[in-house]
Amino acid sequence: MEPEDPFPASLLDRASHLRTDTERLLALWDSPDAQRVAVRDGAVALAATGDPVIGQVPRSVDLSPDGVRVLLGIDPDGRSWWLIRPAALTAAADVRWLGLRELGPRLSPLELDVLMTAVALESWHARHGFCPSCGRPTDVVSAGWVRRCSADGTEHYPRTDPAVIVLVIDDEDRALLGRQARWPSAWRSALAGFVEPGERAESAVRREVAEEVALTLDRVHYIGSQPWPFPGSLMLGFHAWASSTEVRVDGEEIAQAEWYSREQLAQASSSGIIQLPPGISIARSLIERWYGQPLPGSWLRG
Asked: Residue 73: is it exposed, middle or buried by C-beta count within 10 angstroms (0-12/13-18/19+)?
C-alpha cells in the first residue's frame, strides 16, 4: 500500500470573496471563535509550556500588527483563522517561538494547512513593504492578500516560485539520494531545484539531474505538489527513471549521492548512518512512496 499524501485536499476555505467585505471582516475578527496565529521571521508564537496550541497567542505577544493582519480562511467548523505579524519577536516567560520544521510532526492537517499559508505570507509581507517599481511604501489591502503602492496605486500579490523535486530510480529499482554541500554529513534527500523562466517542469527535472549528478533520464512521472514556505516555493514532486547509473556529483551544490536498495536504505536510516527529511516534506513522501511504507528517523529527531 502506498503511503498517504502528506498534503491532502485543503481543509481551509480561503474565503477570497470576503477579502474586500470590511463589515464581515470586522465581525470575523471580533468573534470569540477567531483563531489568531502570530508569526515573525518565520517563527510561530506559542505558549512556553505544554503542547503547542495553534490559534491561541500568548498574552505577552503584542497583537497590534505592524500594518499586517491577514484573513487566512475559514475552517470546517466555521472559525476564522488570522495571521498577525507582531512588530517584533517577544522575549517573555510565557512565550516560545518555534519554526514550522519543528512544529510539523505535531500538527493536524488543518494546522499544517494554516501554518504553511501563514509562514509564506508573513515572509512575503516582510519583504514587500515598498513598491518594487518606485520604492514608495505599500499599504496592506484585501485582508492582507494584496499590497498597494501608496504613490501610483499599483497592486502587488504574493509570489510563489515553482521548484521541482525528484526521486531518481535506476533499472535495478534502487533510489538515488543526495546531500547538499552545506548539509550535515548524515542528511540525505531527493534532488531539487527551481524551474527557470520559460521552462517546463519536466524539463527542469531533466536539467537539474543532469547538472547535479550527470545522469540522463528516460521517464519522468509527476506525483504531486506541496507548498514549501521557505520563503515561498511550490514543490512539484516527481519520480524519474535513469538510463545509466554512473553518478558524478557537481561538487558545488551536491557533495554526495548514492544509490540505495530498499534493504540498504532501511538499514542505513535505522542505524542513523543517514537521516531522511522530516515527515512534513514532500521529499519524505517521494522516498516512502518508492519504499512502500514509512521509514525511521529524520533530520529533526534522528
From this structure: buried
User: Mapped to the 3 state alphabet, what secondary structure does 140-162 carry?
Assistant: EEHHHCEEEECCCCCEECCCCEE
pLDDT tens digits, 123-143: 999 999 999 999 999 999 999
State how beta strands 80-84 and 69-74 pair: antiparallel
- pLDDT digits 0-9 by tens, 238-281: 999 999 999 999 999 999 999 999 999 999 999 999 999 998 89
With vertex at residue 174, the alpha carbon angle to CA 168 and CA 180, rounded to the nearest 5 degrees, is 50
Dihedral in degrees, nearest 10, Cα atoms 19, 21, 26, 28: -60
Q: Count CB-CB contacts under 10 A for residue 292.
A: 11
Q: Which residues, including other chains, have CB under 8 Å from residue 96's CB and lie 6 or more apart? A: 45, 46, 47, 48
Does position 55 have pLDDT exceeding 80, yes or no?
yes
How is residue 42 written as a grid cell? 518565520
Q: Burial level of 271, CB count in 10 A (0-12/13-18/19+)?
A: exposed
Query: Can you give the C-alpha Rg of the chain in angstroms?
Result: 21
> Domain residues of the chain, as ranges?
16-122, 128-159, 161-291
**Whether domain 16-122 has CATH 3.90.79:** yes
Cα–Cα distance for residue pair 20/91, rounded to 1 Å: 35
Element (H, E) at 46: strand 43-47
Phi, psi of 233 (to 5 degrees): -105, 160
Q: Which fold has domain 161-291?
A: Nucleoside Triphosphate Pyrophosphohydrolase (3.90.79)
